[in-house]
What does this fold into?
Amino acid sequence: MTPIGPLAGLLTSGLLEPGTRLRLVQTRANRSANATVLANGSITVEGKSRAYSSPSKAASAVTGTPANGWVLWRVPDGRTLDELRDELEDDGR
It folds into this structure.
């Protein structure tokens, strides 16, 4: 399956793998969530019944307000999706 959407470049470059677990933590709002990246480029959020087409839509499903998922979701090593996207651009992949 060829990934589509905003995460497609990270998946095809290998910077992000299908099945990667993402974590969102907003300490002041006492909010946290786990999510999983799917091979098609979408994100499933634990406790939600659908897949989201972008990191921001997935983050908004958690926060209940517009949210920048690129800076809120983190991969297991602590980097944000935005940092991965910067690596992709820096590497010219």
Notes: The chain has a mean pLDDT of 94.
